């Protein structure tokens, strides 16, 4: 391929990632949420949570943020599959989708993105553990927000994701979040 073709392949990937800003998280529809968050919104807060958990756990915060940023990028092609549907999906699907997504990109970009996704999917490092906890904690916090907005079926997501948290830091933050209002952060400024 020419430099122009790989540049176009890389930009094509960037345009594809823009679709994540429009793709809704489907599990929340099962819980009755009428206008759920997008995949990109979920991934953004997951990266923030991952960075914070990494700082608390002594892991590499930049690496965790990177893992979290790319953890759901395959959903442009396979959609957001809720937990109930995951048992029907081949475990290696995310790596296969990623390989197709970056097939025409610059070789260094393709290799880098494939390595990040592969590590998230199969790695066992502290950073991977923290990234997975960040994904679950974000889902739990989003569920708490939906509960506060009047969606009682979100409680199942809150409970199931909280039960899967592994790191002490994620468990501590989950405990703290459980009894807080989503607007708690602004109370200090309203006084």
TrEMBL record:
SMART domains: HDc (SM00471). Residues 35-149 form the HD/PDEase domain. It holds the Pfam family HD_3. InterPro entries: HD/PDEase_dom, HD_domain, YfbR/HDDC2. It catalyses: a 2'-deoxyribonucleoside 5'-phosphate + H2O = a 2'-deoxyribonucleoside + phosphate. It is an enzyme of class 3 (hydrolase). Keywords: Hydrolase, Metal-binding. Its EC number is 3.1.3.89. Its cofactor is Co(2+); Mn(2+). Homodimer. This is 5'-deoxynucleotidase.
């Amino acid at each position: 391929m020419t430099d122009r073709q790989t540049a176009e392949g890389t930009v094509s990937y960037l345009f594809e990632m823009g679709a994540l800003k429009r793709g809704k998280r489907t599990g929340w529809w099962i819980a009755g949420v009428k206008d759920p968050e997008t995949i990109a919104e979920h991934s953004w807060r997951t990266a923030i949570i991952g960075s914070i958990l990494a700082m608390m756990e002594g892991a590499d915060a930049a690496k965790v943020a990177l893992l979290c940023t790319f953890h759901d990028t395959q959903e442009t092609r396979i959609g957001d599959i809720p937990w109930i549907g995951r048992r029907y999906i081949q475990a290696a699907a995310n790596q296969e989708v990623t390989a197709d997504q970056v097939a025409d990109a610059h070789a260094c970009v393709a290799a880098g993105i494939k390595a990040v996704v592969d590590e998230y999917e199969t790695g066992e490092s502290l950073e991977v553990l923290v990234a997975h906890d960040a994904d679950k904690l974000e889902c739990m916090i989003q569920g708490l927000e939906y509960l506060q907005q009047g969606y009682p079926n979100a409680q199942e997501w809150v409970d199931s994701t909280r039960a899967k948290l592994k790191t002490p830091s994620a468990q501590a933050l989950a405990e703290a979040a459980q009894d807080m209002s989503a607007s708690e952060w602004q109370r200090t400024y309203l006084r």
